[in-house]
């Protein structure tokens, strides 16, 4: 990581690497223990506490409405049995309510005799509905709320006595109040009539809607239970009459206090059947996307186990939460859909990391590398998801708290189960892959390269081959690159790195932000009650009719005045009157005609009748005595509005009534409650306002600041977490910027998608804080972990590593919540809409916006103008290399006495195309002095080292054969290595898996170490042999010059300082070098004989490479084989120098490092390719070539 790796990241990498090793060695424990723990936790379902009370779930825990209700109930408790008044209730209680409209579209007026007859029939059906409860049978008459021992009734029905006259026009109904001339009932029409059309003289012209209300007692728990049973009978009776055509002229919509409870429970039951279909859909998706053309490396069963792991973890988490006594609510059923998506996302990330490990490593090592990479990544995302849900637990809404608690447990358990249970499944699958077993059926299959050699059929190769050939693990046939991953690196990254593409993305992003800001201006707040019901519910019709006809006079609001007040004092009376007038003068309260004030009416009564009453109200006691004696008699409803102390000598509290008007939506309700409360706070009196629905309205006031606060806190915490794991402040800022951008987008576009800002959407906004980090954190972490030098190269590696997992994860998460769309419920529909928005926006940010921003403003963006996509095209070899992101770290152990010679044994000269253009162009014939040549060569070496580091490698311009594509180097893997020096003077050194020997280079591949005495002896041998070497080299043919110059200019210099260090380790890429001309050089030079002269320093170009058989002469096969014959000629020259190989120097077979093998398709079978590491970057003269060697590559000689 260019910005430095944090201690947290290091510790996690080490810990997860060790965990991966342990899982790889002992997967059984991690399969059995999580299953047993899940079964143990699931026993907690016996402790389930199901909560469906909408007031508890969707109102703030410490809302002002609840405080106001506590004040009212402390002074004015409702007595359902004897003193019930519908305008003075403090809780909804148990009730049934119907709204009646006309079926006749041409005549919607209900003031008709046939309508009133059916209204009477409806009333009879309701009152005569029988109820069975606890062995008791009763009707409404036995359970009704009462006023002075009289059942609460709808006196509006007494208009049937005069309805014929009203219909004929002989009698007018005056709005808003009228006394019935027959029954002397005072009909308050706004309570019953809805949408009333009134003339200028307040004469009622038409009544399109009428409502009837029935209250039952609910003073105790048993009465409340009896009331609930009556509500069930009420809903059933009215529903049966409506559905079976009992009424010919009226249409009835019904509602009860249990309706919302029913709807929440119905929402829960509706979504349950979709669990199985979602699970099947997710299994199919994950199984298909985890499969490959390789039947061994395919992981279909891991796709299935990823789903099982997520489901098992969610069930265990829910069981533990129930053990802890947390209530369970229906909204929690959305969590399993989300957890399956999260689990599959983690599955894809872990599988992608597994595929980037070396197939030649053992299963425990691959598990260690996979866990050290993927587990850190999913730790970041899981931690952010958990913290976002923990932030939600601090919400004031119980529904949000409960959902976040269950979801937080589920995320935690899903994470734990994936790094244990699923990792164990991966280990088992890895062992099957190592054994080359079929991914589905488990029997052993052939690698495709072997099947081709055995000439198996095309169908067999397609359906029954896979894995790698362990004898040749790096062949390109068995190491095919994943096409989609290559698409993200080669195509998508190249397009994103173009300047015009970045401009388009930034313009689209600006338009996206503009649309989000516009949506924020259209956002509505509050959870409408109708949205808690399913679309096909009977209650939807009721809510629609209520909104249409009963929004003109919706709420009867109570004004409570408490404290030590002297009501006989005119100043106090004036303060109360000013408070009432201030409330009545607001746009949300109608005229004083609809208000009820015991004080106003009492003083008016006394003033009008003082001559008769002869009362003196100067003292408080006289005022109270007159009030109780004259005005607050039991039959007067005002007697419910004054609370005296126990002695009856002081008024403790009083209540007044005002009527709300024209409250059409939730925004009006929020503003109304806020303004009325503010007026009470500004009053010198200790006053407050209250209505039972104010408890619900409190969410409208709190949901916006709570959501904003949660998003800000969440963004700060996520930025801190990202900085801990990605220790670059700028990148952390971009992660935080992405979070804010995604949250703004979700909030803005949800408003345009008809989603209100309420407790349900707030759950999703809080959840989106964590989800918005997932893709951005993955991309940012991979971008910062890349060892590439330029931003564009980092973008390539980030998209190669995570492009496909992001697409898979986002698709799986959206598929996981598609079932919520089918549930036809607002609650779950909001979940689908918002999860879709956050996943879609998050994926777009991760795949497009964040790579562009990081490349423009991220680390290194201002220090390099290098664009590899413009001038550095990868060759087929580099494209075929399967592990550009995660490369293993083998060792290169080189020991021996090295002079200024490269691996070919010839004098060092800077590789590249630059040559000595003096009079003599080689060796002793050069016109330059030795110091001048040395300085020139050093300058050439430095320049070409820098150039080759930037360009990868440069193709040779000296293409004498017309087919050579790369620089000449020796085929380390095509020949056998034989040692010709110091065979009898030093302990033998063996070449493990090597095939070529080198005259002046000793590779201790068996143990990677050598003694000082050995090194001194080898140096002495070199000095002794040098004169003979020079004489022989002078006889080299001039014809060799053109071949010599081709490879002499392209060398790897290894200094004597390598003697001080024998163990080197570095990670880099491998490249292929064509060595066909080396074979021609060795053949031609052998044919030329010893009489030809050559360069004195070139003695190892031909004679320094030996490939003869051990002991006696070569066999007949060796004579017939040109390669073997070539080796024999090298060996003959060595024999003339008195060097022989002992038996213990016989080499073992060598396999090239993984993923680098590439046979040149233009070469014949006798022409070989060499795999040689990329050259080091430019270093100063003071830095030893030992450090250059450490940057050479990953070539391993075990």
UniProtKB/TrEMBL annotation:
Superkingdom per UniProt: Eukaryota
SUPFAM superfamilies linked: Multidrug efflux transporter AcrB transmembrane domain (SSF82866)
Keyword set includes Membrane: yes
PANTHER family: PATCHED-RELATED (PTHR10796), PATCHED-RELATED, ISOFORM A (PTHR10796:SF92)
Location of this chain's protein in the cell: Cell membrane
Biased composition (Polar residues): 1177-1187
Membrane topology: Multi-pass membrane protein
Signal peptide coordinates: none
InterPro entries: Patched_domain-protein (IPR051697), PTHD_SSD (IPR003392), SSD (IPR000731)
Keyword terms: Cell membrane, Glycoprotein, Membrane, Transmembrane, Transmembrane helix
Annotated family: Belongs to the patched family.
Gene3D superfamilies referenced in this protein's UniProt entry, alphabetically: Multidrug efflux transporter AcrB transmembrane domain
This protein's name: SSD domain-containing protein
Basic and acidic residues: compositionally biased ranges: 938-954, 1018-1043, 1129-1146
Residue ranges, annotated region (Disordered): 917-960, 1009-1043, 1082-1198
GO cellular component, as recorded: cytoplasmic vesicle membrane; plasma membrane
PROSITE patterns, A to Z: SSD
Principal cellular location given in the protein's record: membrane
Compositional bias per record (Gly residues), positions renumbered to this chain: 1101-1114
Chain segments annotated as transmembrane: 28-45, 271-295, 301-326, 333-354, 374-394, 406-429, 500-521, 708-726, 732-753, 765-784, 804-823, 835-857
Annotated Low complexity bias: 922-933, 1083-1095
Domain SSD: 271-428
């Amino acid at each position: 990581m260019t910005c430095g790796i944090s201690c947290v990241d290091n510790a996690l990498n080490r810990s997860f690497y060790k965990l991966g090793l342990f899982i790889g060695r002992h997967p059984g424990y991690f399969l059995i223990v999580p299953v047993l723990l899940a079964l143990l936790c699931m026993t907690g379902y016996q402790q389930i506490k199901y909560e469906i009370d909408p007031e508890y779930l969707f109102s703030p825990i410490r809302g002002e409405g609840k405080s106001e209700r506590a004040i009212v109930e402390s002074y004015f408790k409702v007595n359902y049995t004897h003193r019930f008044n519908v305008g003075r209730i403090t809780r909804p209680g148990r009730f049934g309510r119907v709204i009646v409209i006309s079926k006749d579209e041409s005549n919607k007026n209900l003031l008709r005799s046939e309508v009133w007859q059916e209204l009477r029939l409806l009333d009879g059906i309701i009152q005569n509905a029988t109820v069975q409860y606890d062995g008791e049978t009763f009707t409404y008459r036995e359970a009704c709320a009462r006023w002075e021992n009289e059942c609460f009734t709808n006196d509006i029905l007494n208009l049937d006595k005069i309805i014929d006259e009203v219909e004929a026009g002989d009698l007018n109904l005056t709005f808003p109040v009228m006394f019935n001339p027959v029954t002397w009932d005072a009909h308050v029409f706004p309570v019953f009539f809805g949408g009333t059309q009134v003339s200028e003289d307040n004469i009622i012209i038409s009544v399109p809607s009428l409502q009837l209300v029935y209250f039952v007692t609910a003073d105790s728990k048993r009465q409340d239970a009896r009331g609930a049973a009556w509500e069930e009978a009420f809903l059933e009776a009215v529903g049966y009459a409506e559905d079976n055509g009992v009424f010919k002229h009226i249409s009835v919509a019904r509602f009860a206090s249990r309706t919302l409870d029913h709807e929440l429970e119905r929402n829960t039951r509706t979504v349950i059947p979709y669990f199985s279909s979602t699970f099947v859909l997710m299994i199919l998706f994950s199984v298909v996307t985890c499969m490959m053309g390789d039947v061994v490396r395919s992981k279909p069963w891991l796709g299935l186990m990823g789903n099982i792991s997520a489901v098992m973890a969610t069930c265990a988490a829910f069981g533990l939460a129930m053990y802890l006594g947390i209530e369970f609510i229906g909204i929690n059923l959305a969590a399993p859909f989300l957890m399956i998506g999260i689990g599959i996302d983690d599955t894809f990330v872990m599988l992608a990391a597994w595929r980037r490990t070396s197939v030649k490593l053992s299963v425990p090592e691959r598990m260690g590398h996979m866990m050290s990479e993927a587990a850190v990544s999913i730790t970041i995302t899981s931690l952010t998801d958990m913290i976002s849900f923990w932030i939600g637990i601090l919400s004031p809404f119980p529904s949000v708290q409960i959902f976040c608690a269950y979801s937080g447990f589920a995320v935690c358990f899903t994470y734990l189960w994936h790094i244990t249970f699923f990792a164990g499944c991966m280990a088992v699958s890895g062992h099957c892959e190592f054994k080359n077993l079929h991914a589905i059926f488990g029997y052993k299959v052939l690698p495709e390269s072997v099947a081709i050699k055995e000439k198996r059929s095309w169908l067999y190769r397609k359906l029954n081959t896979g894995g790698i050939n362990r004898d040749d693990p790096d062949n390109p046939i068995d190491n095919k690159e994943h096409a989609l991953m290559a698409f993200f690196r080669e195509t998508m990254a190249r397009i994103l790195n173009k300047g015009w593409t970045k401009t388009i993305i930034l313009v689209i992003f600006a338009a996206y932000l503009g649309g989000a800001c516009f949506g924020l201006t259209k956002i509505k707040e509050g959870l409408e009650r109708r949205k808690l019901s399913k679309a096909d519910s009977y209650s939807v019709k009721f809510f629609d009719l209520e909104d249409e006809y009963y929004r003109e006079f919706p709420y009867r609001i109570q004004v409570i005045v408490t404290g030590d007040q002297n009501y006989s004092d005119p100043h106090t009376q004036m303060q109360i009157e000013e408070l009432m007038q201030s409330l009545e003068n607001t746009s949300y309260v109608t005229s004083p005609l609809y208000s009820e004030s015991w004080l106003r009416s009492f003083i008016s009564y006394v003033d009008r009748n003082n001559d008769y009453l002869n009362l003196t109200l100067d003292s408080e006691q006289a005022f109270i005595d007159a009030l109780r004696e004259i005005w607050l008699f039991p039959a007067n409803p005002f007697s419910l509005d004054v609370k005296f102390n126990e002695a009856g000598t002081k008024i403790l509290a009083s209540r007044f009534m005002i009527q709300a008007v024209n409250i059409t939506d939730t925004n009006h309700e929020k503003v109304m409650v806020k303004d009325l409360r503010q007026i009470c706070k500004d009053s010198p009196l200790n006053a407050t306002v209250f209505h039972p629905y104010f408890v619900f309205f409190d969410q409208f006031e709190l949901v916006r600041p709570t959501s904003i606060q949660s998003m800000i806190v969440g963004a700060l915490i996520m930025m801190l977490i990202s900085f801990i794991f990605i220790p670059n402040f700028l990148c952390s800022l971009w992660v935080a910027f992405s979070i804010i951008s995604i949250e703004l987008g979700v909030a803005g576009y949800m408003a345009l998608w008809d989603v209100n800002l309420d407790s349900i959407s707030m759950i999703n906004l809080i959840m989106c804080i964590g989800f918005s980090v997932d893709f951005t954190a993955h991309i940012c972490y991979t971008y910062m972990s890349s060892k590439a030098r330029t931003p564009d190269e980092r973008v390539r590696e980030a998209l190669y590593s995570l492009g496909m997992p992001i697409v898979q994860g986002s698709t799986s998460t959206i598929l996981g919540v598609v079932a919520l769309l089918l549930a036809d419920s607002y609650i779950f529909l909001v979940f689908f809409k918002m999860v879709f928005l956050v996943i879609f926006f998050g994926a777009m940010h991760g795949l497009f916006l964040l790579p562009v921003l990081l490349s423009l403003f991220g680390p290194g963006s201002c220090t390099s103008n290098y664009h590899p996509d413009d001038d550095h095209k990868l060759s087929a070899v580099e494209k075929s290399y399967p592990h550009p992101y995660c490369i293993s770290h083998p060792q290169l152990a080189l020991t021996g006495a090295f002079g200024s010679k490269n691996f070919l044994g010839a004098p060092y000269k800077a590789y590249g195309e630059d040559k000595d253009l003096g009079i003599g162009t080689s060796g002793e014939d050069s016109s330059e002095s030795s110091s001048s040549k040395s300085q020139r060569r050093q300058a050439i070496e430095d320049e070409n080292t820098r150039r080759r580091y930037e360009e990868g490698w440069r193709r040779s311009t000296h293409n004498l054969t017309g087919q050579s594509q790369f620089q000449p180097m020796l085929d380390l893997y095509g020949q056998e290595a034989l040692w010709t020096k110091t065979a009898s003077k030093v302990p033998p050194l063996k070449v493990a898996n090597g095939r070529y020997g080198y005259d002046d280079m000793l590779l201790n591949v068996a143990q990677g170490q050598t003694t000082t005495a050995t090194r001194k002896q080898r140096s002495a041998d070199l000095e002794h042999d040098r004169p003979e070497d020079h004489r022989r080299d002078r006889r080299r043919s001039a014809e060799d010059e053109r071949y010599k110059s081709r490879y002499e200019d392209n060398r790897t210099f290894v200094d004597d300082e390598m003697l001080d260090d024998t163990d080197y380790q570095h990670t880099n890429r491998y490249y292929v070098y064509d060595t066909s001309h080396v074979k021609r050089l060795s053949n031609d030079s052998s044919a030329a004989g010893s009489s030809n002269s050559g360069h004195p320093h070139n003695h190892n170009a031909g004679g320094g490479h030996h490939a003869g058989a051990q002991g006696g002469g070569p066999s007949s096969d060796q004579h017939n084989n040109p390669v073997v014959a070539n080796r024999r000629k090298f060996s003959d020259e060595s024999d003339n120098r008195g060097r022989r190989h002992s038996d213990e120097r016989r080499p073992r077979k060598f396999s090239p490092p993984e993923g680098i093998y590439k046979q040149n398709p233009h070469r014949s079978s006798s022409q070989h390719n060499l795999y040689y590491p990329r050259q080091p970057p430019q270093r100063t003269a003071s830095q030893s070539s030992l450090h250059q060697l450490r940057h050479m590559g990953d070539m391993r000689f075990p």
